[in-house]
Write a structure and sequence with these properties.
Layout lengths: L11 H4 L25 H14 L3 E5 L4 E2 H17 L8 E5 L4 H12 L3 E5 L5 H11 L3 E5 L4 H8 L6 E5 L4 H7 L15 E6 L9 E5 H16 L6 E4 L6 H14 L2 E4 L5 H11 L3 E4 L1 H8 L12 E4 L6 H11 L4 E5 L6 E4 L12 E2 L4 E5 L12 E6 L12 H4 E2 L2 E10 L5 E6 L3 E4 L2 E4 H9 L4 E11 L3 E10 L7 H14 L8 E4 L13 H7 L2
Parallel strand pairs: 1-10, 3-4, 3-5, 5-6, 9-10, 9-11, 11-12, 12-13, 24-25
Antiparallel strand pairs: 1-2, 7-8, 13-14, 14-15, 16-17, 17-19, 18-19, 19-20, 21-22, 23-24
């Protein structure tokens, strides 16, 4: 569909969008994703929450402050006024948003969108070099920053980059002082539904990070597809978890979904799974959002904390092994919702909930999305065969000024880089990332399948399986394993684990090498960094 006239004065980001011939096919096949041509996502979420009678409900629980929806709206309006009146924001400007998950981050996110800015949220632990890449690619002049994490941002501003203004929030800081003088009403920017609302940067584990643009309507779409149909959200639900707002999995769970449905978010005061459990106990959280790593960690903490308020949970970031699903089900009675999403797609597009869950399977396309498994020729393969995952729906990959757009989007479909198979009932089963497939002595072996087998062993806490070079076999299956307390990584344990895998899956898939370690390398979102394990073996 043709793009609508923009509400932006600064057209830098829109001009960096791919040629429309390279766009994915954006489809709006369900009533839930039919949006008007003009809308502002912040208004549709926050202002509407108050208009719909949720004003006195708590929107944000946290150790530092608790806000109702009325209080959150007033705070966002004051900050939006400060952005326009004092900091010179004009619609279309990109704004770097840097800080840990907090009530102030929520306020700032809404304020930027209300004022017509484009949010560029960054992972809280990024350093100067990483932030410099973001600022340069996004052509960002203004940053709103948590005072506790300001040092690397100021370093970027002192160097030769587009960043010229850094305004900190926190007690006694400039942003707080500016907002305190402003009214709690604001004339919201008139944006088009397909004006860019946020730019989400991929983690950039190798090479240059990719800048993924998403529209105002795309923010609403992630709530009106996955959240509406998989979570069945209701006012009074309280969400908590570990992913940062810069990770769109966390943005949806903790900012967008609660406002869309009158729920609340409870924000841990620090990173880590003990802090998450403390938050669940303190605020009586009903739903959790984290990676499989998090659920395994919480299994070891459940005796220390009262987690009985939980009613549901979502796992994303990487494949949820059936063993982890079963262990959580036995311990809590909760059937975890698995899902695959992507920064490029903004949120989860394949999932299943309730009685439709098949442990080990990711699920079926979320209403509003279509998915298929394709071969090298781009055509669908037969059910049961392994191929590349292709998906399309109301959201899709739009890289800013990036030739990699042409490889991610092919014939209108988003090609995620995952290998899948679909069964005869239409369920999608994860096999591996493209680069996680191990070819050993002519056999194709999926690392995640070996991991799932190992995780069924009583001694294994965590594991990651990669291929390492071998003169005889080309590649050899290598398992990096964290053992549970009370178990020792020795020759006897290695033999036991290898025999266990041979009994569980095809014997040729067993790990010929096992490396015992105290920790596995992970991203800030809890995703295991298998590429680092492969690099150490070169």
């Amino acid at each position: 569909m043709p793009m609508q006239p923009s509400g932006y004065v600064d057209g830098t980001a829109r001009e960096a969008l791919p040629e429309e011939s390279d766009w994915p096919s954006l489809i709006f096949t369900t009533p839930d994703v039919q949006y008007p041509d003009r809308l502002n996502a912040a208004v549709e979420l926050l202002d509407r929450a108050v208009e719909n009678g949720h004003g006195d409900r708590v929107a944000v629980y946290s150790e530092e402050k608790t806000l109702t929806y009325c209080e959150l709206l007033a705070a966002a309006n004051r900050m939006a006024n400060a952005l326009v009146d004092d900091l010179g924001l004009v619609p279309g400007n990109r704004v770097l948003l840097h800080g840990p998950n907090s009530a102030d981050m929520v306020i700032a996110w809404y304020a930027i969108l209300k004022a017509g800015g484009i949010v560029v949220a960054t992972m809280p632990l990024l350093r100067e070099a990483e932030l410099t890449k973001v600022v340069t690619k996004g052509q960002i002049a203004l940053c709103l920053c948590d005072a506790r994490l300001a040092e690397p941002v100021h370093a970027v501003a002192r160097s030769e980059t587009p960043l010229t203004t850094v305004v900190e929030w926190g007690q006694g800081r400039k942003l707080d002082a500016l907002c305190a003088r402003k009214p709690d009403s604001f004339a919201n920017c008139d944006t088009a539904a397909d004006d860019i609302a946020l730019i989400a940067f991929t983690s950039g584990t190798t090479g240059e990070p990719k800048a993924c643009a998403h529209f105002h309507r795309s923010i609403l779409a992630m709530a009106d597809t996955f959240a509406r149909h998989m979570l069945s959200p209701r006012p009074g639900d309280i969400y908590a978890g570990t992913p940062p707002f810069a990770f769109t999995f966390g943005l949806g769970a903790f900012v967008v979904f609660p406002a869309r449905f009158g729920a609340a978010v409870a924000l841990p005061s620090k990173p880590g799974f003990e802090a998450l459990c403390e938050t669940i106990e303190r605020f009586r959280v009903t739903h959790t959002f984290t990676a499989p790593t998090g659920y395994r960690a919480m299994l070891g903490l459940k005796e220390k904390f009262n987690l009985t308020s939980l009613k549901g949970g979502v796992s994303a970031g990487e494949h949820l092994p059936a063993a982890t699903w079963q262990s959580w089900k036995v311990a809590t009675g909760i059937s975890l919702i698995d899902g695959i999403g992507a920064t490029e797609m903004i949120h989860i597009f394949i999932s299943a909930a309730g009685s439709k869950i098949r442990p080990g399977a990711t699920g079926k396309p979320v209403p509003g999305y279509e998915a298929r498994v394709i071969g090298d020729d781009g055509e669908p393969v037969a059910d049961g065969e392994i191929g590349r995952l292709a998906v399309r729906g109301p959201t899709g990959c739009l890289y800013l000024s990036d030739e990699r757009q042409k490889s991610y989007v092919q014939n209108g479909w988003n090609i995620t880089g995952d290998l899948y198979r679909r069964d005869e009932d239409g369920y999608f089963w994860y096999v591996a990332r493209n680069d996680d497939l191990i070819v050993s002595s002519g056999y194709n072996i999926a690392g995640p399948e070996v991991e799932q087998a190992l995780l069924m062993h009583d001694a294994v806490m965590e594991c990651a399986v990669v291929g390492t070079p071998c003169d005889e076999r080309g590649m050899v299956v290598t398992a990096h394993i964290v053992l549970k307390d009370g178990h020792t990584g020795n020759d006897s344990m290695t033999a036991d684990l290898q025999a266990f895998v041979k009994r569980t899956i095809a014997p040729y898939k067993y790990p010929r090498r096992i490396v015992y370690t105290d920790t596995l390398p992970k991203t800030q979102t809890g995703k295991i960094q298998r590429f680092r394990l492969r690099e150490t073996a070169r």
